[in-house]
Each structure stands twice: as structure tokens, then as C-alpha cells.
Write a structure and sequence with these properties.
2 copies of one chain form a homodimer. With 224 residues, the first copy, chain A, is mainly α. Helix content of chain A is 63%, strand content 0%. Chain A is elongated and about 70 Å long. The structure holds a DNA duplex (30 and 30 nucleotides).
Chain lengths: 224, 224
DNA sequence: CCCGCATCTTGCCGCCGACAAGATAGGGGC
DNA sequence: GCCCCTATCTTGTCGGCGGCAAGATGCGGG
């Protein structure tokens, strides 16, 4: 079969597209990045690829299944991006900051994919299709290892806290990313100023993480 | 006009509902909390309230306008909840922790509303309808004041950092909330264990914030 | 060579959001 | 007391969507 770019339309004369699954994923990713999840429609994709409106159903049971596949692909790229960032830095602290920055950068570079991965579409379902990034996923593993590396040099006695600390770091960078993508920050301010504030806030967040990790162990806050 | 509970159906004999706007908002909030944003349909609401399918259009230009109104209402309750939590605690640190817990608690108690407030529906639009919670909103103000209170007793010389620190705290609790609502945490683990891990992670996050605020000023991470 | 099955087709259904034009009623102005 | 004005709600319609069913096509293994 002649290998065409997977996003290509089906030639008019042909009956089978041949790479429809890949083509759908690519086109869906493009739409999601450019126009958002809300604008994604199976029929629209089918039209775009020169294929009948029911063709996608043979590759993805429904719209949700397509989004889940997109999320899975996103998780793979995401984990790779974080691992890459970690590999580039040798100093444990700088490594942690690099991972944090990579986390946010991924969200900024691929807002659509990021929203698919962490958005409500896949989690508001009953039952949720459980995207393949549980706590044992690649991204989490990178973060956890990086935090362990930092604790090893600053507070080996807090080794056992690694999971909690990693969660806190995850929450911080995730929150920063979400606030930028969907939060009120961007809507309220002119773009340039919003961006500047966000950058400053992100640096402050990383600084907070650094300060907490450098600080000696402290009694946790009183539980409510 | 006889004052009925605003969620009531229109009596069969009457032509005008009379409280349709409030009824729509209440019913929409209920649906969103119970079945998620995706399940919200203007026609369904109209049926539920015993009103024609086009009636809602006279009160909300479109589905988005209804969501925006819901978000506005949510922001008001949210700001009040945070202010309440802040008022209850006198010690600056405990106050900050209380505000953080209140933030997450609101998300846990009203996941639907929280998703409407901070979700993509209203931000993926072009142009975004800009929910009325810019950086100057009530919730942000409570958080900022609380952080200022902490800095005042721990590091008055870092007064100027208050905005950055507040952003970091905001990001952390927001991220924790989002990870619980839509993240992989819940889907991957059995409910009880997921909840336990989340609680532990939240406490670790608050501890991280506390440690960072107690620590003396540190050089920020190297900017990339 | 031919048959099986994956792939893709046409056709249909109900639901949705949006728009247009008409019915109803409640209340202010006279 | 009456009448009109306008907010409110109605019916009717349109196109688009997701999903299902049944039929057409053609690739590749036996």
C-alpha cells in the first residue's frame, strides 16, 4: 500500500483510506490544538479526510474513545518531555526546576492535548476510561525520582516524605499550568502583562519549592 | 405573584413561569453537580421546569451565557468561603492553611461549579467571556492578604514578594484540587486509597508552603 | 481462485442549540 | 377603568451532531 502522509485526504477514486486511524488522530490533535476540544466533531474530521461520516466509528467506538487515544498519546509525549528535561540537568535542584519548567512548558506548547489529558471530558464519565497515567506513569516516576534525588542531598532523613513532596510539586506546577490555560489570569489582563505575571508567578512557585526543600524538616500544619 | 420555590415546575395552567431565570440557574447547578457539565442541556432544563424548549433563550443568550452566570455565582460563594475560613483563624500560618484547605474543600464539595469556574468551557471561547474573578477578585484578595499577614511576621523584608508567594500558594492548592477532580489519581486507585493519598498529598503541600514561608529568603532558581 | 473479514458506504434516528414569528399576560400611563 | 406596551413564553423550523443498522468494497490468506 502506498504510504501517504497520514493526514492526507482519501483520493477520490479509492474506497479504502488505509491509514484512517492515524489520520484521525493527527487531524484530531490539530483541531484540538487550534480550536479546542469543544470544536472537535467526528463528522468534521471525516469530512476533512474525505471519508464518510460513519467511517471513524470503525476505529473509535465514540468521541470519547478518540479523546482517550489522544490523551494516551499525549501522556507518552509528556513523560518523554519530562524525562528529557531531567536528563539534561545534573544538579538535583536544577533538575527539579527543569522538570517543573518542562511540565508547564508542555502545557503552554500543547494546550489542547494538555486539556484532553487532564480535563474533565475523560474524568466526568461514568465510569471514567482511566487514561493510562496512574500514579505509576512515566511522568510521575520522573518527578518522584527527581524529588528523591533532591532529598538525598538535603535531607536524607526525609526520604520517606518523597511521595508527599512530589505530590506537592506536582500540584504546584499543575496548578500553575491550569491557571494559565483556563484560569482568570489571562482573561482579566492584557496578554503581555498576563504573561509577565505568569512568568513571575511560576518563578516564585519554583522558588517556593526550592525553599521548602532546602529548609530542614518542620512539623506539618495542624490537621483540621 | 405567589412566591414558589424557584426550582418548581410551572403549573400546567399558567403561561408564565415567573421565576424562570432563578429556576434555570438552580436546576443547572443541580445538573452540573450531579451529572457534570457535559450533561447540561438547555432543552433538558426546560423540560424539567415544565417550560417550552425556547424559553431559556429569553434569559440566557446561549448555553455559554448560562454557564457564565453559574460561574459568577460560584465565584461569589467561593470568595465568601475563603473569607470565612480566613476569619476563623488568628495565627497567620494557621490562617493560610485554613484558606488553602477551604480552597480545596470548595472544589471537593462543589466539583461541578468548580469545573465551571475554572474549566475550559468559558476560557476556550473566542473571545472568552471573562468570568468576574480577575486577579482583583475576592478570592485572590483573601489569599493575598493572608500571605501578607504571614510574611509580616516571618520576613517583613520580603513584603514585595507577596504577589509571587500568593501565586505559588494559589497554584499549589488549585493544582491539588484539579488533580483530585480530573487527574489520574482517582481513576487509577480504589476510592478509599485514592482519597487517603490525596489527603496526605494535600497535607504535604500545605507543609511545603509552610516550610517555604518559614525559611529565610533564598536566591530564586536560575532563570532559564 | 475465492472466500472471509476488515474497512468504508449510505441511510436513518433522536437530541441539541439557535432562530423566527406568534400568543399571552401583567402593569404603567392615561 | 381601560388600553397598550413590553417582558415573557409558545410553536415551528433548520442544520449539525453522535450513534446505530445494513449494505458495498476490496485486501489478503487459504
Amino acid at each position: 500500500m502506498p504510504r501517504r502522509p497520514s493526514t492526507a485526504r482519501k483520493p477520490a477514486g479509492r474506497y479504502h483510506h488505509g491509514e484512517l486511524r492515524h489520520a484521525l488522530l493527527d487531524a484530531a490533535a490539530a483541531v484540538v490544538e487550534r480550536e479546542g476540544i469543544g470544536a472537535l466533531s467526528l463528522r468534521e474530521l471525516a469530512r476533512r479526510l474525505g471519508v464518510s461520516h460513519a467511517a471513524p466509528a470503525h476505529h473509535f467506538a465514540d468521541r470519547t474513545a478518540l479523546l482517550a487515544a489522544l490523551a494516551a498519546d499525549g501522556y507518552a509525549r509528556f513523560g518523554a518531555a519530562l524525562a528529557d528535561a531531567a536528563r539534561r540537568e545534573r544538579d538535583p535542584f536544577e533538575r527539579l526546576f527543569a522538570v517543573g519548567r518542562a511540565y508547564v512548558q508542555f502545557a503552554l506548547d500543547h494546550p489542547g492535548r494538555f486539556r484532553v489529558m487532564f480535563g474533565r471530558e475523560l474524568s466526568e464519565l461514568d465510569p471514567p476510561p482511566c487514561p493510562p497515567e496512574p500514579e505509576g506513569g512515566a511522568a510521575w516516576q520522573v518527578l518522584l525520582d527527581t524529588v528523591r534525588g533532591v532529598l538525598e542531598v538535603t535531607a536524607p532523613e526525609r526520604r520517606a516524605d518523597a511521595e508527599g513532596v512530589a505530590f506537592a510539586c506536582w500540584a504546584t506546577v499543575h496548578g500553575a499550568a491550569m491557571l494559565w490555560l483556563d484560569g482568570p489570569l489571562r482573561a482579566a489582563l492584557p496578554p503581555a502583562e498576563a504573561r509577565a505575571r505568569f512568568e513571575a508567578g511560576l518563578e516564585a512557585s519554583l522558588a517556593m519549592i526550592g525553599a521548602a526543600l532546602r529548609a530542614p524538616g518542620r512539623p506539618p500544619p495542624r490537621r483540621r
